[in-house]
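Interim report, section 4.2 (structural modelling).
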Amino acid sequence: MPDGRLMEACQMSSKPRIVITGLGLTAPNGNSLAEFRANLLAGKARIAIIDVRHMGRHPAGVCDFDATKWQKRKEIRIGTRVGSISIYCSREALGDSGLDWDKVDKSRVGVYLGITEHGNVETENEIHNISQFGNDTKYWTHHHNPRTVANNPAGEVTMNMGITGPHYTIGAACAAGNAGLIQAAQMLQLGEVDIAFAGGVSESIHTFGIFAGFKNQGALGAHEDPTKASRPFDKNRNGIVISEGGAIYVLERLDDALARGARIIAEIAGWCINSDATDAVLPNPERQTECVRMALKRAGMKPQDIHIVSTHATATALGDIQECTALRAVFTDCPETKINNTKSFIGHCMGAAGALELAGNLPSFNDGWVHPTINIDELDPECAMPGLVINQPVKVERVNAILNNSFGMLGINSALIVKKYGVA
Amino acid sequence: MTKEDIKQVVLDIIADIAPDEDLTTVKAEVRLRDQLSLDSMDFLDIVMELRKKHGIEVPEADYVQLASLDSCANYLLPKFQAKSGK
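Predicted structure of the assembly:
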């Protein structure tokens, strides 16, 4: 019987190649890739202090994109915050892609967006709303159901852009950004669509429940300086800074992209999603290791071929150590492999995290700089890894491939590998 | 509360729920749907805002009475007067 892994590698190589041809994003420290990247290289975090209902003031990553750039005010009022994030990112990605939108067959376009959760914001708002009216449900908004159906953010994109192909969200906890991209790549390989808008989005800061949940779990980050509240790998890290954001990519089959003369930003090389099957919140480094190794196998790569590992680490006491344990098992004798973390700048953008963290590293293919993980005043010895880029960016000889880790609750692990286009 | 006051109440609500619309040229006798981009969910918003802000209930069978500013004023005047005791 043929080896299963060999079969998977063969299947991967026989499928159409998938490339990234556009990107739009909003992060707490940037509303375009150029702005985001400049702040990552300059070491500029941007975390605000916000009033959280029932919770008081907490650090959070807040996006300040102009929603009216692509939406009418009525659309914004009727829709959701994450719908606006999704539309902004998708429209920006379209512009970046150079697609002639009027000539695109909209029935052959799909929208696949990763989300950590959806509906909590609107539900909490309505519970608060009717509490002002004696909890009489006749004051509950009729907009509640369209706002809270799980496909909402992707559906708002289709309505705004006139897309008539498939749309849905992929619920994958904090692995969702990678999961959205992987889903899109698979749908393109299957021939279900010709163009995909894919990535991850989050409006998490607008729900107190996520703050309260992490707080009571002992995993909500805090610091007198909010820009230092998110500090993965630091010995004194104390938890997650919750953020909103989005990153949405235009994906196409390579042949289609070449045929229209598209600028190719990167190629999707391989991926894996697996499950810990052990604990709801505590990560399992063995499964993470297996996930990364399978992604490498499917990409036809060795650990030494990866020049940047974009870590998932969220600044929780145990989670960071678990990921470092997993990475040390894979990346032995890899002198060219650099390791960084984006949450130290922008907090944890939940469903958007993986997609944003990949985005901030993509320019490394061309400029040769690796942005650091910041806010490490004292490196936790248990998080020490060769190649960890601490506090200052480093210039490297080459960046040909990036491994993007994203892990989530209920033990979902995702590893996505993208490579510089044109590199064997 | 006069009919003109009620028309302004409705226009203020519409200004909130349809912020992109130019309300300066709305004709009182013409159906709102024929001159503004309003759908059934928007009319439910009008009903909800009348309930929340003014304590006025509009039963579903009477939604048709909200077709124009004139019909709104005719229909809502007794309700507002009943609320104010006049």
